[in-house]
Amino acid sequence: MFLISKREFGEIEMGDRAGVLEVKLIEARGLKDMDFAVKMNTYVVIEYGNQKQTSCVAKGKGTKPVWNETFKLKAEYPGGEDHKYMLHFRIMNTHKILEHDVFVGQSTIYVKDLIASGMDTGKAELRSAKYRVVLQDKTYAGEICVALSFSINQ
Q1: Tens place of pLDDT for every residue, the chain, 154 residues?
Q2: The whole model's pTM is what?
Q3: Which of 12, 42, 45, 100 has the smallest set of CB atoms within 10 Å of its CB?
Q4: Which residues of 126-152 are buried (b: 16+ CB within 10 A; e: fewer)?
Q5: C-beta of residue 22 within 8 angstroms of C-beta of residue 46
Q6: Residues 3, 9: Cα–Cα separation, whole Å
Q7: Contact indicator for 22, 70 with CB cutoff of 8 Å
Q8: What is the rounded CA–CA span in Å between residue 148 and residue 125?
Q9: For the purposes of burial, counting CB atoms within 10 Å of the CB of 96, is it exposed (0-12), middle (13-18) or buried (19 or more)?
Q10: What is the C-alpha separation between 5 and 72, in angstroms, rounded?
């Protein structure tokens, strides 16, 4: 079961070549432990174009956080250059001692084909899949599980 984010999505006011990219942030596994004293409290910053949304904090879940949250983002097609179709997931760890949160890792999903398919058929989806988490030193540690769908505005 997925929870709809408490943030208001509001009305979408875009052209007839636009729709909604729905992101289901499920869980992560095998993350690099960035907090050796206690279990990590992680959250995810999701970015698509100039839109940014943040998940809840998976308190005390350590290297195996579960979020089960759904986010809705505005998407247009064609949207211009290819880099505009990058959906970024930045995993962060809240840190009480430091004055800032700590970067755990990130994943990027290219969604141009999903959106193009949705424009042709009215709706397209990618079932839950695991994507590798890239660390700051460009090595890999863990996976993030995400499901995606795109539907055109009616």
Answers
A1: 333 343 344 443 444 489 999 999 999 999 999 877 788 999 999 999 999 999 999 999 999 999 999 999 999 887 667 668 999 999 999 977 667 899 999 999 999 999 999 999 999 999 999 999 999 999 999 999 999 999 998 6
A2: 0.86
A3: 100
A4: beeebbebebeeeeebbbbbbbbbbbb
A5: no
A6: 14
A7: yes
A8: 6
A9: exposed
A10: 9
CA distance 39 to 86: 30
**DSSP-assigned letter for residue 13:** -
Dist CA 96 CA 102 (whole Å): 10
3-class secondary-structure state, position 34 = coil
**Amino acid identity, position 75:** A
